[in-house]
Every structure is written in C-alpha cells, then in structure tokens.
Specification:
Strand order of the largest sheet: 2-1-11-10-9-3-8-7-4-6-5
Largest sheet: 11 strands, mixed
Distance between the termini: 54 Å
CATH topology of the largest domain: Rossmann fold
Radius of gyration: 28 Å
Organism: Sphingomonas qomolangmaensis
InterPro entries: AAA+_ATPase, ATPase_Atu1862_pred, HerA-like, HerA_central, P-loop_NTPase
Number of helices: 20
Keywords: ATP-binding, Nucleotide-binding
Protein name: ATP-binding protein
Number of strands: 15
Number of domains: 2
GO molecular function: ATP binding
CATH architecture of the largest domain: 3-Layer(aba) Sandwich
Helix content: 40-55%
Length: 481
C-alpha cells in the first residue's frame, strides 16, 4: 500500500506529495539559506509521516523538540548523558521503533559531532532483527559532514563524517533513510550529498551553491538564477519519490512550532533618567534578573531507556499486492528508456532517476539496481541486450569483466552481431550505442577494447571489416568499416 505525504501545492495549485516508501529507498537532500523555510519543510514532512514510520531526528538547535508534545517523540538532551549512554539509547530506539529527537543544543561543535557520530553508529550497528524502516533526519548536516577541515580535531571530524557517510551510502539496507538538510551545499561533503536521489532546493544566493543545486536538479547553468528568486517556503523538487522533472513546491502549514521564533520588531522602552543607574547596579542588587534559575536535574539514563521501551509505533502496513517479476520489469523499463529519442543525450544520473520512477510505477517500490549496476545495464540495453545478467550472456560478460561500464554497450553490440552471425556494426552504429556522435571517439573505444585483447579486428582485401571475440570464438560477418 503506497503512502503519500502531502507537502503542499505546486505552481499550478495541484497537491504536491512525497512517496514515503520511495523516500525510504532513495534518501533526500534539502538545501536552503537561513530563512528559506528549510526547517518548516522538515517539520511538515515529519508531522505528516509521523503515524506511518519511525523518526529519528538529530537536532543541533533544539528546534524539533516540540514534536514530543503532539506526536509523542522522546526527547533526549544529549549534553546530559555520556557517550556510552547515547549508544544505548540508539540501540533501544531501533529495538522499540521509538521516534526520538536527539537535541544537541548547548554543546559546542566538537561535542555535537562526537555525539552525532556515536548515536548514528549505534543506529547503524543495531542487530539485523531490529532493522525496521526509519527516517533519520539530520539538520545542519554541513556541521556533521564538512567538506573540509575546520577547527575541530581531525579524529572527531573523521568519526562524524564516517557516520554520515554510512548513513547515506549503506543505511538503506539497514532500513535507515537519510534526510539531510544544509544551508550551504558547498560546505557539505560531496560523497554524502551525492548519495541522495531526491532533492528539495530552496532559496540561496551564493553562486557556488546555486550552481551545485542546479547541477543536482539537472538544470542548465543559465537557469541557476531561478534558485535565487524562490520565495520563502518554496522549493524546487526532483527525484523518484517526488517528480521526474523539476517542479516548484510551496510547502503547506504545520501544526507545531520551534521554541525559537523569528525576531520581530517591537517598540523600544521609554527612556528613563535612572537607566544608567539600572545598568550599573551591583550584582547583588541585580541578581534577581541577571541570574537564571538553575536547570532541572537530568532524567536518569534508566528512566529514558524505560520510556523508549514503552513507545511503540503501529505495525508496518502489509503489502497484499501480487508479487512482481522484478527482472521483467527492469528489462521493460530499460527498453522504454533507451527507446526515447533524447536518451543518449541525458546524463546517467537523470536516466537513473527516470529508471527508479518507472520501476516504482510498475510496482517495484525499491530500486532493484544501484547507480553502478544501472550504468552497465543501460549501456547493454543500448546494444539491444536487456538481460545481460542472465545465463545467455554470462560468457560474454565474463570476457569483458575488465571493461569500464560505458564501453560495455559497443562491446555487446559487436558480441550480439557475432553470436547471431550478423554483419559487423558500423562506426556510426557503435557511436550511437556509446552515446556519442563522434566517429573518432567510437574508433578509440574499439581500439581500447582491442588493446585489452578482448576483440580482434580483421579487414579483408575488399575493405570489409569483421570482428572476433577470441575468448568465445564468436566472429561477425564482414561489413563495410
């Protein structure tokens, strides 16, 4: 059963939603300058998905602790507990499927990074029987996955960056769907940002951030200025869980709010003659309004662990739809993608997003291929081979195991002609399969494959070319070079 999370409306006033099951499989990156509505977007997503999935929020500023009042999230003030206790909290969160807000408010940057690394490590290392699906939201992700070194110790930076990389690169198999939000794409480690397949890009003004955002959205660089003109609360969205093409979304209202509110102008107090005396009073006389009351003592760790054990979410929704032949769906989708006139001109990233959306529409909710496997399969599909992982093509694939992914297409086009006893493909045909209009580039690809002794080319006295795959004993019929 598909679950859509209502996020607001698009430019045409139509409802805009996020497919929750697809989001769990493909991850999300949110970017926007301060004041763009980034936290509002996260709050809308969390509120609307709270009844359906476990949520774990790493909150540097304590903005999301108010979710506990309405949705029952357990708030853990990280500064009050040791690293060992944080690890135990993380394990209990996965075991009991409790939605949690880990508030890092009050910790300095290095302490926040240490705590986040320990907590994410605890989530990641949970036993296999506790790998329930969960949204893991990390606000201000550039703090925990910085693009370069900062003022924190290198050991701390590596630990935090490693935990964030695990979340985004390897978390999906453990049920962890990373949702990372950042004010500056340029300050966020590229290997962390690159693992997201869904993007919501809000207003930003620096050229370097606009260009990176436009690149992730598949927009031309001359279109990047549109990101600067976005209104507060409006985001450009793209991804298999949202839309196949960039679409502008206006985020809807929320039911909870942050403890801190945006500053508003208020009237100044009336000047008084004794203001100087008030400002210069002795500490004993001014202590009543200068010294804040002492904070309440932290809850014992055992109490928090007991609370986590009492929180439970509804059981996951059972999918009673008939089983889907995933291999057949992948072959059909690849056939449809390469048949499109502009497929050769589109980047592998865009084709991969298209592939995920098409699979989702045919009932395959989680992507059956990762980006690397997709690159090989789409290269093979351009050569007319839609099931290169089957037994039929296994010998040909083994013979070309050392070839780069993008050269698999021309090789398989030749192998297919050799197996079928067809004429050798022309340079024009090989260039089309390779995704280029340059005949010289196609010839260089064939030359590279020959250098690896995977192919042997012969030209007879009449100038007709044939090619042989020595490892298989397959040879094409002669054809014009």
């Amino acid at each position: 059963m598909a679950i859509s999370v209502d996020m607001g409306v698009d430019d045409a006033g139509r409802p805009a939603s996020i497919d929750l099951e697809e989001l769990l499989a493909t991850r999300l990156l949110v970017q926007g300058n301060s004041g763009s509505g980034k936290s509002h977007l996260l709050r809308r997503l969390l509120e609307r998905s709270a009844p359906h999935v476990q949520q774990v929020i790493i909150d540097p500023e304590g903005d999301f602790v108010t979710l506990s009042e309405r949705y029952g999230h357990v708030v853990v003030e990280a500064g009050e507990y040791s690293a060992a206790e944080i690890l135990r909290f993380a394990g209990r969160c996965r075991e009991h499927r409790a939605s949690v807000v880990l508030s890092l408010e009050g910790l300095e940057a290095e302490g926040q990074m240490r705590t986040a690394a320990a907590f994410l490590g605890g989530l990641f290392d949970a036993p296999r029987e506790h790998w329930y699906p969960a949204l893991v939201v990390v606000d201000e992700a550039q703090v925990f996955a910085p693009a370069g070194g900062g003022e924190v110790a290198e050991e701390v930076r590596r630990a935090s960056l490693g935990a964030m990389t695990n979340l985004m690169c390897r978390g999906r198999k453990r049920g962890l769907a990373g949702i990372i939000a950042t004010q500056r794409l340029a300050k966020l480690a590229k290997n962390v940002a690159a693992e997201a397949s869904n993007f919501l890009m809000g207003r930003t003004f620096l050229d370097i951030d606009m260009l990176r955002a436009a690149d992730l959205l598949g927009m031309e660089r001359k279109q990047a200025d549109a990101i600067r003109d976005l209104a507060r609360g409006s985001f450009l969205a793209l991804g298999p869980a949202i839309s196949r093409r960039p679409v502008s979304i206006r985020i809807g209202s929320v039911e909870t709010g942050a403890r801190a509110v945006a500053p508003k102008l208020t009237p100044l107090p009336t000047p008084s003659a004794d203001m100087k005396q008030t400002l210069l009073e002795e500490p004993e006389q001014a202590s009543l309004f200068l010294v804040p009351p002492p904070p309440p003592p932290p809850a014992p760790a055992e109490s928090v662990l007991e609370t986590l054990g009492q929180v439970d979410l509804p059981p996951p929704v059972e999918d009673d739809s008939p089983p889907v032949d995933v291999a057949a769906v992948v072959a059909d989708v690849l056939r449809a993608i390469v048949a499109e006139p502009d497929a050769a001109a589109r980047s592998a990233t865009m084709l991969f997003q298209d592939f995920q959306v098409r699979c989702r529409m045919q009932g395959v909710h989680r992507s059956p291929l990762d980006a690397s496997a997709f690159a090989r399969r789409v290269a093979a599909a351009r050569a007319g081979v839609y099931d290169c992982e089957g037994e039929e093509w296994a010998p040909a694939i083994r013979a070309a195991r050392d070839l780069p992914d993008d050269m698999l297409g021309p090789y398989l086009a030749i192998a297919r002609a050799a197996r079928d006893g067809a004429p050798c493909p022309s340079d024009e045909e090989l260039a089309r399969v390779y995704g280029t209009t340059s005949l010289g580039r196609a010839r260089r690809v064939i030359g590279y494959i020959e250098e690896r002794q995977i192919l042997v080319t012969r030209v007879d006295l009449s100038g007709k070319r044939s090619m042989t795959i020595p490892a298989l004993g397959w040879t094409t019929l002669p054809a014009a070079a």
